[in-house]
From TrEMBL:
Source organism of the structure: Caldovatus aquaticus
SUPFAM superfamilies membership: RmlC-like cupins
Coiled-coil boundaries: none
Tagged with keyword Metal-binding: yes
Keywords: Metal-binding
Ranges where the Cupin type-2 domain occurs: 54-125
KW Metal-binding (keyword) present: yes
The protein's name in its UniProt record: Cupin domain-containing protein
């Protein structure tokens, strides 16, 4: 009988190893998320239906390019710092204990940005719906999740990266 891969029963979130892989964004766009560090708590816990990341933004960093998911819900809960949430409706300051949710398929593009001199720390939670598509209204980029769970990026005209 095969044994299950070793995974911790519990862990200190801040001590979990950061995600090693790059964003998948092309270099001209990846610079905007420099200073972002994600610790994939859901992966470390063996979760398959949804992901949980402990995310730290250094001053000046964005969580991602401003984006909207077709089939994935997203939720953020701020633990430390005061990020600015940028959405189609405008900008809103967030602080510890505040949260925001982004239902799938609304087209509401969003991203938290750290415009302060201190780090921002928050939890981000999202489902892992197969076949999700992401639009980036401010950038020449789009993404689609493959059957293998990996994101495929291309320019808006379909040119692969």
């Amino acid at each position: 009988m095969p044994t299950a891969p070793h995974r911790p029963i519990a862990l200190r979130a801040a001590e979990a190893p950061p995600r090693a892989r790059a964003t998948g964004y092309p270099p001209d766009l990846a610079r905007r998320v420099e200073g972002r560090e994600k610790r994939p708590l859901g992966d470390l816990s063996g979760l398959r239906n949804f992901g949980v990341n402990l995310t730290r933004l250094a001053p000046g960093a964005a969580s991602a390019l401003r984006h909207a998911h077709a089939t994935q819900d997203e939720f953020v809960y701020v633990l430390e710092g005061t990020p600015t949430l940028v959405t189609d409706a405008g900008e809103a300051p967030l602080g510890p204990g505040m949260c925001a949710g982004f239902p799938a398929g609304t087209g509401e593009a969003h991203h938290p940005v750290d415009r302060t001199a201190r780090d921002v720390v928050y939890l981000e939670i999202g489902d892992r719906s197969p076949g999700d598509r992401v639009t980036y209204p401010d950038d020449d980029l789009r993404a689609e999740m493959g059957a293998d769970g990996r994101w495929r990026y291309s320019r808006k005209d379909g040119t692969p990266l």
